[in-house]
Specification:
globular, 355 residues, alpha/beta, Spore Coat Polysaccharide Biosynthesis Protein SpsA, Chain A, 2 domains, nine-stranded mixed sheet
Length: 355
């Protein structure tokens, strides 16, 4: 089969690098994406093992891998643990085998020589992880929503990126083609030190999916590590492969998980920030209602109910956080005010004195 030839090429050269780095792809019912993207990943990752963690897919993903990519290791999980839990379960089985993991979505196309620049970024021992420049697979001239050229948080814990603020994705004109320290790196394509991932307990499985990578980055920030974007490495992300960006469920997860992220990681008393977020979320819900998007309005309401039901557990996790520094979000401004009232829709227009 077509996959066997590619898999043989990369596996023939893995021995020297076997303990250094593994490319780990989480999959759930992603047969179409595996068919489209896995040959590209294999062809451009010669010398590095590729491991698929299958989250109890009900399609033909596993049989396809066994038949077409028999030399690609597949870890089959007994149930769907979600994105965060699935990676935790799968990487737990790999603990001790590799120094570094590249966590890669199953709907990502990689480019030639995409791995060495990422590894070079980790030559600095204070850097826990890094991401490539993430462009859109469907519109390759523009940044993609999930990560773009590295992520930041504003003072209210709203995430945004170099190249993407809310739903506005910039055209890539080389404006961010320099390595930069960021608040968080994208889970769509992230190189991370394996020992640090396991040391802090991996992803918080209560997030299920969305913003779990931001939480992981913040927890490592708290103990003195940093994250960078290395745009010398480029990947192309389809986005919404498992859950479309227009999904009400995605809205639920984004709103709930962002509240969990804030309360769990905010330095100092979190109450005032939570009140501010409640106001902003209420305005967002009202806008959905006025636009007739009733399902999205309901999802914000349910997101808050879910968060409040989990708040005691979140506070317990907050108490257990290890901190050698009280790392605050890098951007002290208000990204909502900048975007909607000052019409600053690109990263370059933001007030640099706020960073």
């Amino acid at each position: 089969m077509f996959g066997e030839e590619i898999a043989t090429i990369y596996l023939d050269n893995t021995n020297a690098c076997m303990q250094e780095l593994a490319i780990v792809i989480l999959n759930y019912n992603g047969l179409q994406h595996l068919t489209t993207f896995l040959p590209n990943v294999c062809a451009n990752s010669v010398g590095f093992p590729i491991i698929i963690i299958d989250n109890a897919s009900t399609d033909e993903s596993v049989s396809f891998l066994n038949k077409s990519f028999p030399l690609v290791e597949c870890i089959s999980l007994p149930q769907n643990y979600g994105f965060a839990g699935g990676y935790n379960e799968g990487l737990g089985k790999l603990k001790g085998r590799f120094k570094q993991y590249i966590l890669l979505n199953n709907d990502v196309e990689v480019s030639k020589n995409w791995i060495p620049p990422l590894q070079s970024a980790l030559a600095d021992e204070t850097v826990a992880g890094c991401q490539p420049k993430v462009l859109s697979y469907s519109k390759k001239t523009h940044f993609e929503h999930a990560g773009a050229a590295g992520g930041y948080l504003d003072k209210n814990y709203f995430p945004f990126c170099r190249g993407r603020i809310f739903n506005h994705c910039e055209e890539d004109q080389g404006q961010y083609d320099y390595k930069k320290k960021v608040d968080w790196t994208s889970g769509a394509a992230m190189l991370i030190r394996a020992d640090l991932f396991h040391e802090v307990g991996g992803f918080d499985s209560d997030f299920l999916a969305h913003m779990e990578e931001i939480d992981l980055c913040l927890r490592l920030n708290h103990v003195g590590y940093s994250f960078v974007c290395e745009p010398a490495s480029v990947v192309y992300h389809l986005g919404g492969g498992t859950m479309p960006y227009t999904s009400p469920t995605k809205t639920f997860l984004n709103f709930r998980n962002n509240l969990m992220l804030l309360v769990k990681n905010h330095r100092g008393f979190w109450g005032p920030r939570l009140v501010i977020r409640m106001i902003y979320d209420g305005i967002a819900a009202l806008q959905f209602l006025l636009k007739g998007k009733f399902s999205f309005f309901i999802m914000i309401f349910l997101a808050h109910l879910s968060f409040y039901s989990k708040i005691q557990k979140v506070l317990q996790k907050r108490k257990q956080l290890k901190r050698v520094q009280n790392k605050a979000p890098s951007y002290s401004g208000n990204i909502i005010f900048d975007y909607y009232f000052k019409n600053n829709k690109t990263f370059t227009k933001l007030n640099k004195r706020r960073f």
